[in-house]
Structures are given as structure tokens and as C-alpha cells.
Amino acid sequence: MKTTFQFFKCIGLLFLVLSGKHMLAQTSGPAVDVSEKYITKPTNGETSEIIGTISDDLGPLPGANIMLKGSDNGTTSNLDGHFNLVNVKPGQHVLVISYLGYETKEMGINVPEKTQVNVGTVILSVGSETLDEVVLNSGYRSSQQKALNIKKQSLAIMEVMASDAIGKLPDRNAAEAVQRMPGVSIERDHGEGRYVIVRGTPIAWNSTLMNGSRMPSTEGTSDNSTGTRSAPLDVFPSEMIEFVELSKAITPDMEGDAIGGSVNFITRTAPSKKTLSVNLGYGANFQAEKPIQNVSVVYGDRVADGKIGFMISGTYWNRNWGTDNYEVVYDDNFAINNLQLRDYLGTRTTAGLNAGFEYKPNADTKIYFRGLYTDFQDDESAVEQTFGFADEEMSLRVRHGITGITLYGSEIGGDHRFASGKLGIDWKASLYDAEMGNRNVPNSKGNGEAAYYMATFSTPVSYNNLTSDGYKFLDIDSPEGYNGDHYDNIQPYMTSTVGADQLQLDNQIAFKQYSKETDYTAQLDFTYEPTDKVKIKAGGKYKAMKLERGSPYSYYLYLGGSYGVPVNMTDYETTNYSYNGGYLTEIDSPYDNVLIDTPLNKNELPKLFTEENLDNPLYYHINFDKENPSSVGAFYTGNEDVAAAYIMGDVNLSEKVKMIAGVRYEHTSLKYSGYAVTTDADGQVISEVENTNDFGSLLPMVHLKYTPLDNLNLKLAYTRSFARANFSDLNPTETVSVISNPNTISRGNIGLEPTYSNNFDFMGEYFFDNVGLITGGVFYKSLENVIYSARSYETIDGTLYQVTEPNNSEKGWLAGFEVGFNKRLTFLPGILSGLGIEGNYTFADSEMDVPSYDVNETTGDVTETITTEKIPNQSQHIFNAALFYERGGFNFRLAGNYKGESLAVVQGNPENYRWYDKNFTMDLSTSYAITPKLKVYLELNNLTNEPLRYYQGTAERPEQTEYYSLRGIIGLNYNLF
């Protein structure tokens, strides 16, 4: 311990020298109650300043209201509980400190002229004995008070969640933690939350930030595209989060690309006191029938009389998972082309390390450092049995691969105050990197390359129950005289039994994914408070992003069957298809009679990919890489430089009315490099292409807050924000064919304008004295340049081309309302006073104008038609609800999350559109504090075993249905100190 102290002491002295000699003469106030003592020191300003920290017995209280009695001069405590009250006239004052759920504290202070008064740490007491018993003795740590107080004091429309509240939910990654907030839903991958959606808006319209800067992205959405800006949050453990801030109406000092909302994850830096917490958990996934393990450790302390603080947290989360899935592919007339039965089994591992350090030589200066490393690894095996009705074939594909995502980076920054606290200067520089790729899959010799392996075996078959012309339908689409299948019992009806010995090797694929994004960011912010009614803030930010995308793969077509050298599935060790606890038991296992034993992927599949085997002359081999015209379009790089500046004013118009007004400007420069492929009668030609573009975005914003009563806020906001085009939309790849009729061009569009939105928000908030909230509000977004996939016609050098590219529609809108309720039922008698309920509901609707084009084959004339569509991936209905109980050392919470259906893909006519079906999940968490330091807990997810479903046109025409079953974990949390 002595060595650790000396190490941090040396670092502290170094920062002390770098920060300037004036700091050596300043001291910070001790953690004492102000009724006993406060400290003063001279300042260089004309007025005086009062500083201090607001806390309870468990730690700092952010969002506390600090006022000089009888005046409009006030401030709020920051996330560390610290406050600076400036422009204080000399004389005798009464400082009033209030906090929801706590007793208001008043204290007399004599403020000399030109003096900084440090009141140290002000300790607040819980407001009632009942609340004290229900909240503090349950180990609650006032998480709800923290969130509600920050929300109450904020001029903007926002939601807040603290780390101790996250710990009370059965959520192990960042996306699942945020889904409990009002108006928030998530998109899942194999049952785990991955992307955050705010107010039902498309994923791409929501900004995911880490410590104020956008998180780098590595992959696309669930359709396996590799070009979105969305950051996958299942790689980010919830244990690393200190606070989550959800801004539904942004302010000028925030990044402007957030139409739906901005979710900011603030990572841990340093504790207020010595902390050591260990969490151990063990459980199971009931679909995989395999275990789950979780361990996390958090250690932090303050040394050198509190001037130096540090925190280190590490987490390891290993969970087995399983998914049972069936998928259906239709033609344009709803005939079933094929039925796919998919059985997934995998192991996901998340390991993370977060380090924070801060040096506070005095109350006016803080220098900090954050470092983050997290590694996500998904070891996935899958079996896909496909019944091809259209081509009279049955195939079985086995696959295995390990996909890894690594997110790492660091940032250094400082907060400084001068001139009696009136002037503040904040700065930060950061580097974050995210990479995704395949990890090595060992072959039979114990080594291998980084690739995702797939092998397909097939055999010809004949099917019964087809129409006279050879088609198969569901019952809702059946032609007259034909008996179709129910959507949850689509049977292949083969004319004869097929076994593994009849399936012969058809092809193999070694697929290699790779993507990388690196972000360099620097920012500088100034605040100035010339009077107690005005605060001016201005600053700038520069971000340089580098992007790489590519997905090469090798295709091996096995020709041996034609030469009498077939490779049968029975040449390899096989296992039961449904080895992970049965297959589709949720719908009574309708396919048990047709499932075929398959090679166990991890043991047998690599044998097909040995170097010796792939050199066999009976293989026809194609590399789909940068040299292949069919695949070169998947490879591109991009550079984006964003320079932003803003200015804003925070003004107290009266005792009850406050305003934020300002403007932000962001200039974006784009340079993307890729490939063009031209196909003519002489063949195909590949050429390099590079496109550039730049645009500016002027974003004015105004927020008004009216407080007619102490516990009532009315907030009105106008903001202009935007959403940049996805990376894949900007991909400069162009494919031109002059041998088709009509000739075709498929390309990205570097000239895309971002989607802009003029946002109007109104929100009412009423806060209960004993911790609780009622909210209600409306929102309207007037949209410009909504990006969509367009098909149009263009005449080039007298030749007509059909052009497919992303484009901007002219206009659209999204509007809705939201309501919320959160209340502890402390008025109930006895043990029932520990009950509480919370819920929120969001309704949203939207329209966008989409042009479509038809060409007259005789005259060549092109006709444009404007149609009105829903905005893709926008849900009309979202709600969250929870019943909780907290008393003594016992804590119980039953939570539900609902996301309504949304349009996923516009394809063909509206009857062919792909929809994401409604989804309702329920989770449970409960804990009991055996001692004040030791807690046992139980967490259960997906109690209702809700499936994920996509359908075409109507819910009774499924395209994809998959089940994940229940998962749960039981564990111990030990806070040593």
C-alpha cells in the first residue's frame, strides 16, 4: 500500500507542476459538516464564490439544488456532488440545499469580500424514517433520488440512470440497462440486447456516446450488412457504467447527429471514498442447457489528502446460449420457395477492464484520465436444414466460427476554473478504436486460420402437398382446392424418408469478416458567468475518423460426386440435431420426424478445411476478394473529418423561467475509396474509385423551463438535429452493366445529404417529495432528406439506365406522445409500504414521401409517382412497466418491456413488406442483504420466452421466428468497504 501511495504521489506532483505554481497555494475543504467549519481563501475576482460537495452517508449526491435564500442566485451539484456558486456579494447569507427525498438544509455563512468559501462536504439526511428504512437499509444508495434530482434540475429534456440502479436490474450489457428508461427499446441478437432505439425511431437516428463522444462502430444491423454507424452495445459490460444520460432534446454543446435521442454512457473515474466490491454469479441458459458465469471487481480509493483518486474495474462474463429458429422464403406470389430449420448453439465471452484516474490539487482544478478495454467473443455453431420446394432439393449446412469485437481507447482531460469561479475551461483529447473480425478456429491439427467455416450437404428429394403446378402455400394464401399449412407447422411432406447417408458434400465456404473504425477527438469548452443570471458557454470539437470494411471469402465447389467420389455426411461423426435441449419445443416440436443427425461442428467441420483436403483437385475454388468483380464492392475505406463549434447561453429570465439558447455548426468532410465494376460484351473490368464531399450543418436550439411550483417543471424545446448517412450508403462502389435490358447501375451515393429534423418537444414533470415522478409530453419532428433505397432511371449519353442507389426523399414527419409514472407506495401500512410501481408509454407515428419510377418500354418515357410510407424501423407503441418492493435488506423487481411492430424492409408491394413483429419480454431480479456488506441476488431474463419474429405483410406469414428460452444467474455481491 505504501508503494501504491508513493506511486500516485509522484504522479500527483508531476500534474501539480504542469498545472501551474498558483495551485500550490490552494487547498481544498475537508469532508466535514458545515455546521462545524468552513474554509476561506482570497480570490482575484470582484465578488466571492462558495464551493463544496453535497453528499449523504453513502456518497455524493448529483443534482442537488443550492440557492442563496432570498435571491435568484443558485446552482446545482455535478455528477461528483461538487458545486460552485459564483457572483456572491460579500455579507451574511443563508445557503439552502434541497434534494428530493432528503431534508432541506439551511446554513448561515459569512462571506468576506473577494473570497472563496469552501464549505467542505455537506451531509444531507433522508427525509423520513419510513423512507430511511425502505431505501437506505435495503442498500439502495439513493439511485432513484440521484436520477430524479438530475432530471429535475436539468433545463433539457433528459433521463438519467445511475450505476447502482443498473446493478438492481438483470442486465449485463449496456443496451439492456438502457431499455428500462422511458421511451427506450432495444434490438436483440440471439436474445441479447444490441442496439438502442429512442421513441421508436430508426436505429441510425440515435446517437450512442461514451463520455460525450460517439462510440466507434464495427458492424451493421441484423441483416448482416457492414455499413451502419450503430455501435453494438453487447460488447460493453454494464459494470463499467457510472451514469447513463439520455437526452431526448439535445443542447448545442452536444454532438448534433441525434434525431431520436442521444445516449451517453459515462464510465467510472474515481470514487468519493475507498471502494472494493466483488461480484460472483453462476447460472444457466435453459435453451443451451449450459452454464453462465460472471465475475466483476471494482477497486478505487483517494489518496494524498483526497487530491488523487483512482478506480479500476474488471469484468468477465461467460455465457452459453442457444437459439431455435425457422425461416421461410416466399416468391412474389407468396408461394413458399423453401423452409429453413436452424439450430444455433454458442458461447459468448465478454472481458473488460476500465481504469480511471483524477488529480484535484484544489477545488478549481481537476485533471483526469480514462482507459477502456473490452473484448467480446462469440463462438457460434449452427445447423441449417433446408427444404427446397422450388428446386426439389433438401440440403443441410453446418457452420462454425468465432467472431470477435474489440473496443479500446483512452482519454485525458481537465476542468479548470478561474476568476472566482466565473470562468471555466474544459479540455479533452481521446482515441478510441473498435475492430471486428473472425478469430482462429482450430482444425484437427490444433491450428487454423481466422475464418467462419460453412459446409453444405444436399440430395434431390420429392415433395407431396404441392399444387398441380408444383407450388406450396400457407393456409392463408392457399388457392382454391388446396390445403395449405399453418404458419407454425409448415411441413415438408417428403415422398420418402431421407437419412444422413444420402446427403453428399456440395460446397464449402471460408468466410472472413473484417471491419475497423478509429476515432481521434479533441475538444475545448469555455464557460463564463458574468452575473448570477447568465452563463455563457462556447467551444469546439474536432474528430477525425478512419474506417475500413471488407468481407472476403473462399468458395469451394466439390465436384467429386460427378466422378464417383462422393463425400457423404456419414463419413464424419454425427450427433443428434436437437442436442441443445430439444428443437422448437415452444411449438410442440413439429419437426422431430424430419430432423437428420449432423456432424458436430466444432469437432468435425474443421476436418473439411485442412490444407491437405482443400488441395484436392476435385474442388473448384473461387476467391471472393478484391480481385473478384462479384465481391470487390464489399471492400472500401473512408475518412471523415468533423469540425464543430457552438455558443449557447443559460439565462434566468425570472425566478421561475430559465432558458438555454444557442447554435451549433458542424462541418463534415468525406473521402471514400472503393471500386467500380463495369460489365460489357468483352467481360468485366475493375477500377479504383474515390469520391469526396463536404457539407455544413447549422443547428439552432432553444430550451425553456418554467417552474410554477417547486416540484413541477414545464419544459419546451426547439432543436435542429441530423443523422448522417450510413457508411454503406456512402460506399463509392459502382456496378455498371451494359448487356442487360435496360442497362443497370448500382452504386453508393457520396452526395447524400444528411437527414435533418426540426424537433419540437413539450414535457411536464411533477416530482413527489418522497421520491417519485409523473411525466407527460408530446413531440413532433419535421424531417428533411430522409434516406431510403431508391430505384430510378437515368439517361447517360443517350442510353437509358435503371439506377439503384440510396437517395434523399423530400420530406417526412414523426410525431407522438409519452407518459410516465413512478411512485413508491409509502402510504401503505406496515410491510406493504415497500411496494412501488413504475411505467411509461410512448406512442409514435410517421410518414415519408418516397418517389417511385416506371418506364414505358415503347417510348422510354419515365413516370414518377410519389407514395407515402412509414419510416423504416419505427415502432408505434413502446412501454416499460415494473413492480418493485424494497424494505430492510430485501429487494424485488419484476420488469416488462414492450416494443411494437415496425417496418423493417420495403420490398415489392406493401403485401410483401418485411415487418419486425411486436415483442414483449419480462425479467425478474431479487436480492437480500445478509449483512450491510454482503448481498445474495437472483436474476432471471425472458420469463415469457418471447420469440423474435419477422413477417411478410401479415403476422400469419412468418419470415423468421426464433426462441431463446429462459436464462438466469444467482450470485453474491460483497462490498468490502
From TrEMBL:
The family this protein is said to belong to: Belongs to the TonB-dependent receptor family.
Coiled-coil segments on the chain, per record: none
Key words, A-Z: Cell outer membrane, Membrane, Receptor, Signal, TonB box, Transmembrane, Transmembrane beta strand, Transport
Region (Disordered): 209-230
Ranges for domain TonB-dependent receptor-like beta-barrel: 464-943
Signal peptide span: 1-25
Organism (species): Formosa algae
InterPro entries: Beta-barrel_TonB (IPR000531), Beta-barrel_TonB_sf (IPR036942), CarboxyPept-like_regulatory (IPR008969), Plug_dom (IPR012910), Plug_dom_sf (IPR037066), TonB-dep_rcpt-like (IPR039426), TonB_rcpt_bac (IPR010104)
Topology of this chain in the membrane: Multi-pass membrane protein
Boundaries of every TonB-dependent receptor plug domain copy: 154-261
Assigned GO CC terms: cell outer membrane
SUPFAM superfamilies: Carboxypeptidase regulatory domain-like, Porins
Gene3D superfamilies according to UniProt: Carboxypeptidase-like, regulatory domain, TonB-dependent receptor, beta-barrel domain, TonB-dependent receptor, plug domain
Subcellular location: Cell outer membrane
Biased composition (Polar residues): 209-229
Protein name: TonB-dependent receptor
Predominant place of localization: membrane
